[in-house]
Specification:
Elements (H helix, E strand, L loop, with lengths): L10 E6 L4 H6 L1 H7 L7 E8 L14 E5 L7 H14 L2 E6 L4 H9 L4 E5 L10 E3 L9 H16 L33 E5 L12 H13 L4 E5 L5 H10 L4 E2 L7 E4 L6 H9 L3 E5 L2 H8 L4 E5 L4 H4 L6 E5 L25 H18 L3
Parallel strand pairs: 1-2, 1-4, 2-3, 4-5, 5-6, 7-8, 7-11, 8-10, 9-10, 11-12, 12-13
Length: 368
């Protein structure tokens, strides 16, 4: 946001964003609501892990972006007083703590921020001036839980009353890191992005044999380029899927139908540019899934160990495929201890059927 267009800086309101990318994206409607505190003389300051800060550069909903190093200077036991010092320097008079951890609540208390709003969790009630009860996980969409915190903060500082129907809101990201899609996607067959693995754990990940079968069908029968995206921790899953064979694999976007493996090889700005040019994104419950949906890419989310009632992607063109018939789902575990993994039952055929329905519906909504 151009400094000339900013409102005069008022009393500082610190917004501590969620640590995980998907949670952060789902929290953007709450950030938009908190911007209304300007009407009561408050100046929103967004503090978030440094690796996600480029997504919010120039965001008009906040007057400043304050990055912190979750796994660097501000990580670990010694990182708590350093994080407190960072937030103390912001001179905030109120803070909303979106992460549910004890660490951030302790840092906010050590920073001397007088008004502290957050959910009651992780034994931190005593550190909050405005503790907010949290319903059992999955009772409300995560998006709504973050809006609850925003509303509690606004009520505490005398901001405007919330206006809404209680339904989850679609996330939104500012135009950042360039608005154009990666030009390599513009020449050649359409590109379907396929998210591989998650940082959280294997229990959220589609099995490699299903990845391979879906990719082969999409590249063969559908004639598309299948672009594999994900963190470097997903490399073993990629190797297992690649060993199945049945379709040509390569490491570059140029060319015809086939599977392009860029897992662990893309930066955040590169992923944004790629997703903007994709005709589709398919993947498990992850930050990439939420990023694709927020960018407007048609998105199909796969759910097994987690619940779409809690973290379904939000957007104009989204759909979900969830494992059914498992009393243990959602378990929210990092690893599945059961003989039959629930996502094994989410077949490539099921996902392709949902993809076709979503793309048809998306095409019907396109202006003519």
């Amino acid at each position: 946001m151009d400094s000339a267009a900013r409102p005069p800086r008022g009393r500082r309101l610190l917004v501590v964003a969620p640590n995980w990318l998907g949670d952060l994206i789902m929290a953007t409607p709450a950030l938009e609501r908190l911007a209304a505190a300007r009407a009561a003389g408050w100046s929103p300051v967004l503090s978030l892990p440094a690796r996600w800060a480029p997504l919010f550069a120039g965001d008009p909903r906040c007057d400043e972006v304050l990055p912190w190093e979750r796994h660097g200077r501000h990580g670990g036991t010694l990182g708590v007083p350093r994080l407190a010092a960072l937030w103390r320097a912001a001179r905030a008079e109120a803070v909303v703590l979106m992460p549910p951890s004890l660490r951030v609540a302790l840092a906010a208390r050590l920073a001397g921020i007088p008004l502290r709003v957050g959910h009651v969790s992780d034994g931190r009630r005593v550190l909050l001036t405005h503790p907010l009860p949290r319903a059992p996980r999955g009772s409300r969409h995560f998006n709504l839980e973050m809006l609850d915190l925003a509303d509690a903060l606004l009520a505490a500082v005398g901001g405007p009353s919330p206006v809404g129907d209680g339904a989850p809101r679609n996330p939104s990201l500012p135009v950042c890191m360039g608005a154009a899609p990666d030009p390599r996607l513009l020449a050649g067959p359409p590109v379907w992005a396929l998210g591989v693995g998650t940082t959280f754990g294997d229990a959220k990940s589609w099995p490699p044999r299903h990845l391979a079968a879906f990719a082969a069908e999409a590249a063969g029968a559908q004639g598309v380029r299948v672009l594999l995206l994900g963190e470097s921790v997903a490399r073993p899953a990629v190797a297992a899927a690649r060993a199945v064979g049945g379709v040509a694999w390569r490491d570059t976007l140029e060319g015809g139908a086939g599977v392009i493996d860029l897992v662990g090889r893309t930066s955040l700005p590169e992923v944004v540019a790629l997703l903007r040019g994709c005709a589709l994104y398919v993947g498990n419950d992850s930050g990439l899934m939420h990023l694709a949906a927020a960018l407007g890419t048609p998105t199909v989310g796969l759910f097994g160990s987690t619940s779409p009632a809690w973290t379904a992607p939000r957007g104009a063109r989204v759909a979900c495929v969830a494992a059914e018939g498992f009393s243990c789902s959602p378990c929210y575990l990092r690893r599945c201890p059961k003989p039959l993994f629930c996502l094994e039952t989410v077949t490539p055929g099921m996902v392709l059927a949902r993809v076709r329905a979503l793309l048809t519906a998306s095409a019907d909504r396109e202006p003519t």
